[in-house]
Design goal:
- 60% of the residues lie in helices and 8% in strands.
- It has one domain (25-113).
- The termini are far apart.
- The protein is built from three helices and two strands.
- The protein is mainly alpha-helical.
- It is rod-shaped, with a radius of gyration of 34 Å.
- The protein has helices at residues 4-21, 26-77, 83-88, and strands at residues 99-103, 109-113.
- Strands 1-2 form a two-stranded antiparallel sheet.
- Strand 1 and strand 2 form a beta hairpin.
- The longest helix has 52 residues, at 26-77.
């Protein structure tokens, strides 16, 4: 049989072991941090292309809106007009930031992408 002191010592040892096993080790925490880093890198690279797709969709929509406004102006006035004529005539609410509309010397409508100050063309090839 155990004496009273042996039982007390055994309870204290058991309590110390239970508290030591309750936490995480440094290795376990580092593994979790590495896994979270890998997952965040995957998310960043997969989300990066979404912005490009959104820009392309906005360019296509803007181009279609200007073309529709130009057709409405032609149906109303019998001639094509530039961006100023489209906005002043009420066919567009505001001038486009991505395209310029102009009338060529032959009277044809021409829509060209705008070049930014840094030399980039956001809607090139669309």
């Amino acid at each position: 049989m155990f004496t009273h002191l042996q039982g007390k010592l055994r309870r204290q040892t058991r309590a110390l072991n239970e508290t030591a096993e309750a936490g995480f080790t440094l290795i376990e925490l580092l593994v979790v941090i590495v896994i979270l880093g890998i997952l965040s890198a995957i998310v960043v690279f997969s989300v990066r292309g979404i912005n490009d797709k959104g820009q392309g969709s906005a360019c296509k929509t803007d181009k279609a809106t200007i073309a529709t406004a130009e057709e409405a102006l032609f149906a109303n006035a019998g001639k094509y007009g530039d961006m100023k004529a489209l906005t002043e005539g009420g066919f567009l609410s505001s001038a486009s930031n991505w395209y310029t509309a102009a009338v060529t010397s032959t009277g044809q409508f021409e829509l060209t992408p705008v070049t930014k100050a840094d030399g980039s063309i956001p809607c090139a090839g669309i």
